[in-house]
Amino acid sequence: MSAPVQMAPPLPAAPRGRRLARWAPPVAGVVAVVVLYLAFKDTATLPHDDDARLFHHLNDVRDWVDENRNSSPIFLFVLNYIRLFVADLYTALQAALVALGWPGLIGLTAGLGWLAGGWRIALVSVAGFGAIGVLGKWDASVETLALTLSSVALSLVIGIPIGVWAGRSARVRRIVTPVLDVMQIMPTFSYLSPIVLLFLIGPASATIATMIYAIPPAIRITALAIQRVSPTAVEASESLGATRWQTLRKVRLPMALNTIMLGVNQTIAAALSMVPLVALIAAPGLGVDLLQALARVNVGAALVPGIAIVLIAIVLDRITRAAARPRARARAVRWGGFALLTVVGLALTPALAQEFPEQWEIQIVRPINDVVDWIEANWYGFTGFLNDAVAYGLLNPLQNTLTSAPWWLVTLAVLAFAWWLSGPRAGVVAAACLVAIAALSLWEHGMETLTIVLVASVITIAVGLALGVAAARSRRFAAVLRPFLDAAQTMPSFSYLLPAVALFGNGRFTAIMASLIYAVPVVARLVEDGLREVPQTVVEAARSAGSTERQLLWKVQLPMARSSLLLAANQGIVMTLAMVVIGALVGAGALGYDVVAGIAQQEDYGKGLAAGVALVLLGIMLDRITQGADGRRSPHKKRNA
Q: Which of 286, 353, 10 is nearest to 137 (CA)?
C-alpha cells in the first residue's frame, strides 16, 4: 500500500499593491512645478511689447476697413444698412418716449403695470418713474430706456425664433449651446472694439453691443419653455390633423408663454446692466453721467444715475414678472384699467409740460459725498492696511510668480491642474487658451489680469460661501440679507467702482472690492439654494446619529450640495473676470486697460482688439476648468464604485 501523499502547505497570498493616497499625485505635481520654476525662473517670460507685429497688422485691418467702408459691398449692402436701421429704431423709440412727456410716460407704464399685475404693479410703476424725475435724471433716463427697449426688441425678434428652433431640434440645440456659452462668458469689454470697427460709435453700435449681451437669456429660456411643453398636448394636436406650424402657433407657444415672459424679464435685466458700459462708445443716457462722475471721482454724482437705473430695472422687472404669472382678473377690467391710466397720463402732458419740473427735484449728491468724506477721514487707517495687505501679501507675490515663470511652465501647470480637476478635455482647452494668449503677444498682461481675477475670486467665493451658509442655516438672517443682495445685483457695475475708489484709491484692490460686491450676491444665493435642497430626511438622520452642527455642515450638507457649490464658484469667477476688466477704468491696468486704450486711441486699436480676444480666452479657460469639475466623480463615489 502506497504512502499517503502529503499536500504542500498553501503558498502565502501575494501582498496587494498599496494604492497611492489621493493627495500624492497633486502634491507630486506641485513639487515638480516648484522645482521647474526654480530651475527656469526668468526664462521664456514673454515680456509685453506695445509694438508687437500683430498689433500693427490689426491696425492695418482697421485702416483698410475705414478706407473701404463706403466702397466694399459687405459694408454698402449689409453692415451700413444694419447700422442705419438700428440707429433709426433707437431714434424712433427715443422720439416716441419724449413725445409722451413725463406724465404720458408715467401713465403708460402705470397702465402696463395694471394690465400685467393689477394696482400694486401700477403703483410701483408710478413711484419708480416719478422718483427718477425727482432725482433730476429724467432726460438721461428716457435715453437709457430707449436704448434698452431697442436692444431688447432686437434680442427678442432674433432670440425667440432661434430659441423655438433650438427647443424643437436637438441638433440645433447642440450647435447653439456652445455659442451661447461663449457669449455669456465673454467680458463685455471684449467685443466693444470689433463692434466699433464694424458699426462706428454711437447709439447703433451701443444697441448692437447691448443686444449681443442680452440675447442669450432670450434664446436659452425660450428653448427651455418649448422643450417643457407637454408631449401629450403636442401629440393630440398632431393627431387632429394640425400642421407643425399650427401646432407651434396654437399649442406650443401659448403653453410656453409664461416661461418665455421670464426670458423677456432676464433679457431686460441683462440689457440694463450693459447699457451704462456702452457709454464708452458714445451711447447716450445715464452711462454718460456715470463715466463723468468716475472721471471726477464723485461718488454722489455716480450713485444718482445708478439709482435711476435701478428704478428702471425694478419697474420693468415687476411688470414682466407679473405678465409671466397667470391672470385671474377679467380681460375687460385689465384692458379698461390700462386704457384709463394711459389716457389720463397723455391728457396731463399738455397741462404739466413734457419736461419734468425742476422745482420738484431733490439734490442728494452733496449729502452722499459728505458721508463718503466722513468714511474716508475715519476709515483711512483700516482701508489703507487692507489695501496694502492684499497687495503685498497676495497680488504682488502671485503676479511676480506668474510673470517670472516660463510661459510653457505656466501652461503645463494649468494643463495638469485642469486635467486633474475637470478631465482631459478641460485640460486641453485651458492649455490651448494660454497658448493663444501667448500668440497674441499679451502674455504678461494676461498673467497680470489672471492674478487679479484669482485673488478676487478667492475672496469673493469665501465671502459668498460664508453668507450662503449663514443664510441657509438661519431664515431670519436670510430675510435680512435678501434686500442687500437684491440691491447689489440690480445696481449697474459702474456704480460699484466709485465707492471703492473713494475708500481705497485707484488700483487693483479697488477692482477687487468692486468685483466682490458685484459677484458675491450670485455666489451667496447659489450656496444657500444648494444647502436648502439637501433632503431634510438626510439632515435629520445625521442629527439623530449624534452629528454636531459643524459635522452636519462639513460631512453632509456641503458634500451633498457639491453641484451647487461648483456652479457658485463658476459663476463667481466669470462675474469677477467681467468686473475686474471694468476695473481698468480705475487703475487696475492689464488687459482691461489695453481694451480701453484701443477704443480711445487709434494707434492702440490693434492692441485693444487683441486684448479683447485674450479676455475671451481667459474667460473660456476659467469657465471650462470650473464647469468640468462637476462632471468628475467625487472621491466618495470612486471608493464605492
A: 286
Cβ atoms of residues 114 and 122 within 8 Å: yes
- Quickly list H helices, 474-493: 475-490
Q: Within its chain, how far is the Cα of 308 from the centroid?
A: 20
DSSP string computed for 520-578: HHHHHHHHHHHHHTS-HHHHHHHHHTT--HHHHIIIIIHHHTHHHHHHHHHHHHHHHHH
Buried b (16+ CB within 10 A) or exposed e, 17-37: eeeeeeeeeeeebeeebeebb
| Beta carbons within 10 angstroms of residue 195's beta carbon | 22
For residue 78, give the DSSP letter: I
202: three-class secondary structure by DSSP? coil
For residue 177, give the C-alpha cell: 449651446
First to last CA, the chain: 55
What are the C-alpha distances in Å from 412 to residues 12, 229, 641? 45, 47, 30
> The C-alpha cell of 294 is what?
468716475
| Whether 607 contacts 551, CB under 8 Å | no
The answer to whether the CB of 638 falls within 8 A of the CB of 204 is: no
- The percent of the chain in helix, strand and coil, each rounded to the nearest 5, is 85, 0, 15
Our measurement of the distance from residue 343's CA atom to the centroid of its chain's CA atoms, rounded to an integer in Å, reads: 39
pTM above 0.70, yes or no: yes
CA atoms of 231 and 244, how far apart (whole Å): 13
Please give the Cα distance from 103 to 79 (Å, whole number).
Answer: 38
Type of residue found at 104: G
- pLDDT of 632 reads 52
3-state SS, residue 64: helix
Quick: pLDDT tens for 20-38.
Answer: 667 777 788 888 889 999 9
At residue 96, the 3 state secondary structure works out as: helix
Q: Pick from 449, 447, 608: which is nearest to 50 by CA?
A: 608
Which residue do the cell numbers 427718477 mark?
132
Query: pLDDT per residue over 523-547, tens digit each?
Result: 888 888 888 888 888 888 888 888 7
pLDDT of 436 > 60? The answer is yes
Instruction: Note whether 59 and 605 are within 8 A (CB).
Output: yes
Q: What is the mean pLDDT of the chain?
A: 84
Contacting residues for 280 by C-beta, under 8 A, at least 6 apart: 192, 291, 596, 599
What is the maximum span of the chain, computed from C-alpha positions, in angstroms?
133
**Using an 8 Å Cβ cutoff, are 252 and 192 in contact?**
no
Which amino acid type is present at position 639? R
CB within 8 Å of 355: residues ≥ 6 apart: 102, 138, 139
